[in-house]
């Protein structure tokens, strides 16, 4: 089995690639799938096998985008992945299915082994350019970085405050509790919606009730969680939602309509007139059409309102 040589002939045409604050000098070549090693501190969590990605690799006749790799610090002649773990995993899956055409994969190799911080910065910079970042990845990466490096270093790499980092971590940890969704990646959306509720209202018992009712499929639209902003401040509606038989719809029925405080004097009189006009049925308007006396009164009211505006301006 032939393997690419790693020597002077491979690095004469180094190119600079600027990624965030890190400038890489890289060259392109190909490598055997077994000479590439995944990064054990990969920021992305979760399963990486993806049959759709395998179909895309086959349709393209191989990887369209090379893996970004670095010289492995412990195994001479081998490479460690900086970015492209999913592409490597699914290319390897094809090889394990006996499809040897996918054994040689394109790689972009850095001229040095990166520091752990630089490696993470590069990976995050690359992934921030992709649509998956806002869809589901930033909370997951924040959680993983805290585990790898601690809160202060994680916040620094992501370019956010520790407080913002803690919020991302909280959202990710909450998302892990939504275990019965048809699309597991949608758990982040559910968690974001729930965390949008005021922390003063979002007690552990409320979170537990929401998670339970979502997992029981008694709440099926994440946007419906916004109703909690009205339900939770009302003690009766809140008690109904927290009850075993309660849900969002039954709790909404328990809400006491907010009473409008009557305004006194001229503002109150104007409010009453406008409210009366708004609630006038269209059938009544049709019957008044062409009424000369009514039209005259409207003209008088219009003139009076203009005079009032001029006097108050």
Automatic annotation (TrEMBL):
<dbReference type="InterPro" id="IPR003115">
    <property type="entry name" value="ParB_N"/>
</dbReference>
<dbReference type="Pfam" id="PF02195">
    <property type="entry name" value="ParB_N"/>
</dbReference>
<protein>
    <submittedName>
        <fullName>ParB family chromosome partitioning protein</fullName>
    </submittedName>
</protein>
<dbReference type="InterPro" id="IPR050336">
    <property type="entry name" value="Chromosome_partition/occlusion"/>
</dbReference>
<dbReference type="GO" id="GO:0005694">
    <property type="term" value="C:chromosome"/>
</dbReference>
<feature type="domain" description="ParB-like N-terminal">
    <location>
        <begin position="29"/>
        <end position="126"/>
    </location>
</feature>
<dbReference type="InterPro" id="IPR036086">
    <property type="entry name" value="ParB/Sulfiredoxin_sf"/>
</dbReference>
<dbReference type="GO" id="GO:0007059">
    <property type="term" value="P:chromosome segregation"/>
</dbReference>
